[in-house]
Structure formats: C-alpha cells, structure tokens
Amino acid sequence: MRRTAKGRAGITLIEMLIVVALVSLLAGVSFPAIGAGLESLRLVSAANQVAAFFNTALNRAERRQQVVQVLVLPQQGLLRMRSTEPGFERTLELSEGVRIAAVLPERPYREEQGRSFLLLPGGVAPRVTIVLGNRRGGRRLVSLDPITGAPHIEVPQSEQ
User: Fold this and answer.
1) What is the pTM of this model?
2) In b/e form, how buried is each residue of 16-39, taking b as 16+ CB within 10 angstroms?
3) What is the 3-state secondary structure (H, E, C) of the chain?
4) Which of 31, 50, 108, 153 has the least CB density, counted as fewest CB within 10 Å?
C-alpha cells in the first residue's frame, strides 16, 4: 500500500491488474481438471443408476412373480422396464454427456425399437452388458451375471 500526498492508503491500478491476471491464470489452469472430474462423476453415477435399474427389475420379477421386460434404447439414452402388471412402467434416462455405446452380446436389432431382454421369475438372468461412454472417452461396463443374477460395474482394462 502506498501513501498518497494527502495521507490516504491505496493500491495502484497496476497492482490490481496483476492480481486479476494471477487469479485468471489459476482459474484457467484448474478448469479443465474440474471439467474432467465432473464428466467422470456423471459416468460413474450413470453406471450406478443402470445397475440399480437392473436390480429393481430382477427384484420385481422374483418378488412379484411377474415377467419383466427391460428395453434398452441406445439412440435415446433410455432404459425402460415393463411388467405384466397393467400400467407398470419405469424409465431411466441417462444424464447429459453419458451415452449407451453398445449393448452386448451384439445381435442385430432395429435401433428405433431398441434391444429387449426378458427377466423371468425363477429363471436365469440373461447375460447382458451395457457399455456406457462419455465425451472424454471414459467407459463403464454394467453387466448382469447369469450365475448370481446380480448386476456389477466394471472399468475396462485400458482405463485402469
């Protein structure tokens, strides 16, 4: 702080510009890292939501003894669950920036109709894997294990 001729303390315009430049530089350096972290969080959250969605469908089939259809619509980024109970339908829409990259095992299907899986009460869960991706190339695999009947999330080997 400098003292002026009248005895008042203050800062100069140059000092203020230097502080603003340093703050701008720090913000510019940290912003890409924060953006990448948010994209990663969205992908992890979407994978958890898909696993919970499959778990809900499996529980409904087993506890209510109803056939449950899980419809995967990759182009719309949607998963839809329907059962034999009239009027029952649940939809999961993936968050912005997360997409369904693939549905495995690959089989021919019409994109507008999506890919359908049936969960039968007392039956074996189908072997299905939904590959989720984000804009930065991150991927998560959400799989239904036919032996345990439980969904689990994997990180591809290339990202570990």
Assistant:
1) 0.77
2) eeeeeeeeeeeeeeeeeeeeeeeb
3) CEECCCCCEECCHHHHHHHHHHHHHHHHHHHHHHHHHHHHHHHHHHHHHHHHHHHHHHHHHHHCCCCEEEEEECCCCEEEEEECCCCCEEEEECCCCEEEEEEECCCCCCCCCCEEEEECCCCCCCCEEEEEEECCCCEEEEEECCCCCCEEEECCHHHC
4) 108
* Ranges of each domain in the chain: 8-159
CATH topology classification for 8-159: minor pseudopilin epsh fold (3.55.40)
Two tokens, residue 146? 């036919």
